[in-house]
Amino acid sequence: MDEEYDVIVLGTGLTECILSGLLSVEGKKVLHMDRNDYYGARLWGALLTKLAQLYRKFRPDQTPPAELGRDRDYAVDLIPKFIIASGELTKILVHTDVTRYLEFKQIAGSFVYRDGKISKVPSNEMEALKSPLMGLFEKRRAKKFFEFLQGWKDEDPATHQGINLDKDTMQTVYTKFGLEPGTQDFIGHAMALYLNDEYKTKAARPTYERIVLYTSSMARYGKSPYIYPLYGLGELPQSFARLSAIYGGTYMLDKSIDEIVTDADGKFIGVRSGNETVKAKQVVGDPSYFGAGKSTEGKVRVIEEGRVVRAICVLKHPIPGTEDSDSAQVIIPQNQVGRKNDIYIAVVSSTHNVCAKDVYIAIVSTIVETANPEQEIAPGLQLLGTIHDKFVSVTPLFVPTSTGESDNIFITRSYDATSHFETVVEDVQDVWKRAVGKDLVLKKREVELDA
Predict the structure, then answer these.
(1) Which of 38, 116, 292, 440 is most buried per CB count within 10 Å?
(2) Distances from the Cα of 386 to the Cαs of 123, 124, 326, 357, 402, in angstroms?
(3) Distance CA 146, CA 39 (A)
(4) Rounded distance between C-alpha atoms, residue 373 and residue 156, angstroms
(5) What angle do CA 81, 36, 415 make, to 5 degrees?
(6) Domain contains 273
(7) Which of 117, 127, 132 shows the shortest CA–CA distance to 191?
(8) CB proximity list for 430: less than 8 A, separation 6 or greater
(9) Contact at 8 Å (CB) between 47 and 266?
(10) Of 367, 416, 342, residue with least CA distance to 191
């Protein structure tokens, strides 16, 4: 391995594969390595392409029950996330033309839990008027709020109604329109997709932008703002790997990563695998490659409240209260169940080619707050109805301890509890800016995804 690369990428989670593809398109000479022989790094959660793999991972002594259908009909994501139709990941897919490798299917519904039941999330003033989430007078206030958002023009003060999105907090905006706490809940958590209520004390513009993203994504396909690749999320990293290869990227799967080699000043030199060392100017990788070893000790840490609990649940029916949807997102705002963080439910089915006919895969997740993680997702599990089988895991959330600009070691973040990809893309943009030294700029192309 005498060849020197611009960048070595470690791990084949989605973040790493997107960065590998984008860096290759940028003209960088990229070597992409993974200790595993499959796509999907440990902290990403591999796509389990057979039902037997799911049972082998969680219950090695048990074979899958025959009533769940054929083994090969399954493709279960350990960390499920939906793609927002007009979101940043969609822009990257279009910018890189990765869409040619993928087919998408719409997620049938977006719901929120309120006062003991599931209701559809209203996405505009007309849906707000029909929503059971609000009483008559609150519906009128919500209608005015949505009209304000949709009518906002930065250059026209007449549309601002005395509000400054860059200075006034979101709580100030809610108060101006007289919105009740329950209405604030579904707007902030089911539309703006915040994990907790910290956003209320910050400037309103990011929340405004998130709500506009949600409503524009909803308008794109109608039933929900989310899409999902056929055959599961494992198709995404593989598609970006193909992109990297087209632009000259080199892939080495099933390759041990024995040492991150640095010089006397701690700057990155290369990666050792067995007796071979490959050199590069920079390394980008998932946190699991940097947690141990003299040269990279202390490069990552577990964040406060830094674990996510997830339950993969096999159902034989749609989630009750979701209008028999073959797929859905359900958000339980933390205020509804006395928590600090929301609980997310993502459900997909045979419509997405990820399980056998008449089977549904629902995954319930949240950030761990107590010593009893499984009990914390109980409100989500109770909404599922009869659970045919359940697989629970708790994973730590790692973040880098430095920017990487001083040692050329750029580490990505673990995947959070959210059920969408916007936070993943924020990490891609952050690592890109640190490693490349400029903002990631995506070409604006209008390509209609086949959903």
Answers:
(1) 440
(2) 30, 33, 16, 17, 46
(3) 42
(4) 49
(5) 25
(6) no
(7) 127
(8) none
(9) no
(10) 342
CATH number of the domain encompassing residue 194: 1.10.405.10
The band of 180, judged by pLDDT with boundaries at 50, 70 and 90, is: very high
Flag whether 129 is in a domain. yes
On whether the CB atoms of residues 122 and 147 are closer than 8 A, the answer is no
Amino acid 305: pLDDT: 67
Dihedrals phi, psi of 415, to nearest 5 degrees: -85, 130
The H-or-E segment that residue 382 falls in is helix 378-382
Give the DSSP H/E element, type plus range, for residue 251: strand 250-252
pTM for the full predicted model = 0.87
Residue 216 phi, psi (nearest 5)? -70, -35
Compute the distance between CA of residue 370 and CA of residue 386 in angstroms, rounded to an integer: 26
Contact predicate 419/310, CB 8 Å: no
Closest CA to 374 of 330, 449, 313: 313
| Distance (Å, whole) CA 426 – CA 140 | 35
The stretch 302-325 carries a mean pLDDT of: 89
Report how many domains make up the chain.
1
Give tens-digit pLDDT for 368-379: 999 999 999 999
How far apart CA 121 and CA 147 sit, in angstroms, is: 16
Q: What's the DSSP call for residue 43?
A: T
> Is residue 140 domain-resident?
yes
pLDDT band at residue 392 using 50, 70 and 90 as cut-offs: very high
**Residue 176 domain-assigned (yes or no):** yes
Cβ-contact 423, 416 below 8 angstroms: yes
Q: Write down the pLDDT at residue 99.
A: 87
> What average pLDDT score do residues 356-368 get?
94
Residue in 385, 421, 318, 335 with CA at minimum distance from that of residue 113: 335
Residue 187 has what DSSP assignment?
A: I
Quote the radius of gyration of the chain (alpha carbons, Å): 22
Give CA 4 to chain center in angstroms.
33
pLDDT average, residue stretch 193-216: 93
- What b-and-e string marks burial along 42-61, b requiring 16 or more CB atoms within 10 Å of the CB? bbbbbbbbbbebbbebbeee
Residue 89 has pLDDT above 70, yes or no: yes
Q: What is the mean pLDDT of the chain?
A: 88
Domain that holds residue 183: 110-221
pLDDT of residue 241: 87
